[in-house]
Specification:
Helices cover 38% and strands 15% of the residues. It folds into two domains: 169 residues, Aspartate Aminotransferase, domain 1, CATH 3.90.1150.10; 252 residues, Type I PLP-dependent aspartate aminotransferase-like (Major domain) (Aspartate Aminotransferase, domain 2), CATH 3.40.640. α13 packs parallel to α15.
């Protein structure tokens, strides 16, 4: 008699001809940890992808406005990325090398060093484990080693990863409350949000008040906050609900940090490489981080993360931060090809233009619907905050309506568009399509949003 184990092991691992999404999802629900998240809201089993589209095992095709949470800058199976991976495979490169040097690694560092912000051009590149969270951990270790201080400042609404230290820096409380002490002494300060400011202040006034709070925290000897090793900031808070810091705030962060002798860690895991309509989100706000944390897009869709370290701060001892998969050759090959293509094709400018078109289209689709509180973003990092206009105000704006956002997400999925939700109460519908999206697909996404909104009325 053939056992289930024998049958599974005998089957080709990805060839389950005839199976439908429901069968695969049900099996994964039994096998996978309760911590799985995306399949709960997006119950599809994907079979293939091409460009900005993915197709599930049932043959339905979707516009992918999730794109690996922004990791797929060039979309699925872009020829530039596929060819780079094929060349590496055909050349017989070792798939992983720890941090041993290879021509592919040398090429990646050369390409990355040529496009980082100018003040980091003479810096050093630290290869980390394959996740952005590990690179955040590494940046914190560098800052603590360089300054001899241990405390940190982060911002409410920020997201920096799910490892212990990165989670300590993250604003969302739900993932932290059951865990007790996390990554040492971390203080959180308010981050500007023109629509829903912590101080109830609109627009630039929000940035001014948050900047004053930061300056007080770092400069006032009675603020209760010890001088930190570093402050950690996203130029645009993605998971926090697509809040973009204005240039005035980025400049104020740099001034306050310099005055206090504090390092700035710029978390560009999601904003880096063209996503915001500029090559680097920190350049948009004149942040000039001392430590630049990169992942997602720089690996061409494969796992890769680095910290770019300002000259003079590369102070950790050999082996002070390590990881088995920091020498993933396929990711390095895909990443170098992706960086070259984004820069040569000026996809940052394309993202700016398509982002403007998407934002206008979403606003037009919303019309006069009072449940749409705000449409915002820079570039192709767009969020629509949905609200209950008849509920009491919450922090200067209408009550966020996460239930409505999730219904809109489901209605958009039914119309062939994959989106994510995030922000406070998960009330922000988020759009992170590949940077190569074109006008007709942008218009279709906006149209689907309008249809989904109408279906939930």
């Amino acid at each position: 008699m053939t056992s289930t184990r024998d049958t599974v092991l005998a089957d080709p691992p990805i060839d389950r001809a005839g199976e439908r999404s429901a069968e695969i999802l049900e099996r994964q629900a039994r096998r996978e940890s309760a911590t799985r998240s995306y399949p709960r809201r997006l119950p599809i089993a994907l079979a293939s992808g091409s460009g900005v589209h993915v197709t599930d095992v049932d043959g339905r095709t979707y516009v992918d406005c999730l794109a690996g949470a922004g990791a797929l800058a060039l979309g699925h199976h872009h020829p530039v990325v596929d060819n780079a991976i094929r060349r590496a495979m055909d050349d017989g490169v070792p798939l992983t090398t720890l941090d041993l040097t290879t021509p592919i690694k040398d090429d990646f560092t050369s390409v990355l060093a040529s496009v980082v912000p100018p003040h980091l051009a003479d810096g050093r590149i630290l290869f980390c484990g394959p996740t952005g969270a590990d690179a955040i951990e590494a940046a914190v270790k560098i800052a603590r080693t360089a300054t001899g201080r241990s405390s940190l400042v982060a911002f409410g609404g920020g997201y920096h990863g799910m490892t212990q230290g990165a989670l300590a820096l993250t604003g969302a409380r739900d993932a932290k409350e059951a865990l007790g002490p996390l990554g040492g002494d971390v203080q959180h300060l308010p981050y500007p949000a023109g629509y829903r400011c912590p101080f109830g202040a609109p627009g630039e006034e929000s940035a001014a008040r948050c900047a004053a709070a930061l300056d007080w925290a770092l400069a006032d000897s009675h603020s209760g906050i010890t001088t930190p090793a570093a402050l950690v900031i996203e130029p645009v808070q993605g998971e926090g609900g697509v809040h973009a810091a204005p240039r005035s705030f980025g400049q104020a962060v740099r001034r306050s940090a310099d005055a206090a002798g504090v390092l700035v860690i710029g978390d560009e895991v999601q904003t880096g490489l063209g996503r915001t309509g500029a090559l680097w989100g920190s350049d948009r706000i004149d942040l000039r981080p001392d430590l630049l944390v990169l992942s997602k897009a720089i690996g061409g869709g494969l796992p890769l993360s680095v910290v770019v370290i300002r000259d003079g701060l590369d102070v950790m001892a050999p082996g002070a931060h390590a990881g088995t998969f920091r020498g993933n050759q396929l990711a390095l090959a895909a990443g170098a090809a992706t960086i070259r293509h984004v820069v040569s094709e000026r996809l940052d400018l394309h993202a700016a233009a398509m982002g403007d078109r998407l934002t206008r289209g979403l606003r037009d689709a919303a019309g006069t619907d009072r449940r749409v509180g705000d449409v915002r973003g820079p570039g192709l990092m767009v969020g629509v905050e949905l609200v209950d206009p008849d509920a009491p105000e919450w922090w200067g704006a209408a009550q966020p309506d996460g239930g409505l956002a999730r219904r809109v997400q489901q209605e958009m999925l039914a119309r062939g568009v994959i989106v994510e939700v995030g922000g406070r109460h998960d009330a922000v519908v988020r759009f992170l399509p590949p940077l190569v999206i074109d006008e007709p697909v942008v218009d279709r996404v906006a149209e689907a949003f309008g249809e989904a909104l109408a279906a939930t009325a």
